[in-house]
Amino acid sequence: SLLGWLCGYEFYRERGGGEGSPLRFPQGAQVFLEKLLQRVKGEKHFSFLVDRIHHGPYDVTVWAGGQSVVVDRLVLTAPGQALLGIEIEPPLSDAKELALGALPLGRTIKVSLEFSKPFWNENGWSGRYLSDGLLQQCWNGSRGECHVLLVYVNGDTASRLRSMSDPVDALLNELSAEFPKARECFVKGALHDWVGDPLAGGGFPHVQPGDVLEHWEDRIRSEGRLHFAGDATSTLIGYMEGALESAERVAQEIGKA
User: Fold this and answer.
1) Residue 209: its pLDDT value, please?
2) pLDDT at 28 over 80
3) From CA 82, how far away is CA 89, in angstroms rounded?
4) Is the model's pLDDT at 15 over the cut of 80?
5) Res. 181: pLDDT tops 80
6) Strand pairing report for 50-55 and 87-89
7) Spatial distance between the Cα atoms of 224 and 181, rounded to a whole number of angstroms
């Protein structure tokens, strides 16, 4: 929706260089997360699929992978559709469930194309590319000696790409038509299909008309000892900065509680 887009655009309008997302983690998001984990007190649990949550007046019990964990408070960061697939007792309020279900996830595929050298520099090209073909959005995601172009493919085009026998090769063909050296320097490609990811069901969320005024506050609001974070509960929906914004909000909620 236009209002939803404007809420996010407010934070981007003063940036220079024509870039929508000019800020990057110097060593990648993985290193950022690892450093955060080093500061977390208590046990860390990975690769457990949460299937049930019970929240009461004094604590919260989470069941995952046949095990249970009791915590004081629980911060839920999964997309709304994924949260609705978890058994929560007592149930979330009608307004909360409606708000979580009202924010659909886009059909999104992300592809990384690695090359032996940054051939785009030879052509005076930054690596940033927008088109109405398969290669919808491309940008330079290189780090150190790893020369990578990252690609987003969305919507109907993402559905078409999913049906191809070799999506990476199809994207490389389109890139090579514009820059013949791409095929010559190509090393390997990797693809993540957010639509086919059973724990996500799509890529970044997009705001429907009416959502800001009808559901925004309900989506953000905590319920008892359950708190809701993630970019979908921020004013920067679809961006890492939105996730960080929501983390600051939830930390304040818990501190006040």
Assistant:
1) 84
2) no
3) 16
4) no
5) yes
6) parallel
7) 57
Q: Which secondary structure element, helix H or strand E, spans residue 94, and what is its range?
A: helix 94-101
Is the pTM value of this prediction over 0.90?
no
Contacts 24+ apart (CB under 8 A), 182-187: 182/113, 182/115, 182/119, 184/119, 185/115, 185/116, 185/117, 185/119, 185/147, 186/113, 186/114, 186/115, 186/116, 187/114, 187/115, 187/116
For residues 49 and 82, the answer to whether their CB atoms sit within 8 Å is: no
Residues 6+ apart with CB under 8 A from 215: 98, 99, 102, 103
Gap between the Cα atoms of 151 and 122, Å rounded: 20
Mean pLDDT calculated for residue range 198-210: 83
Q: How far apart are CA 77 and CA 95, in angstroms?
A: 18
The type of residue at 98 is L
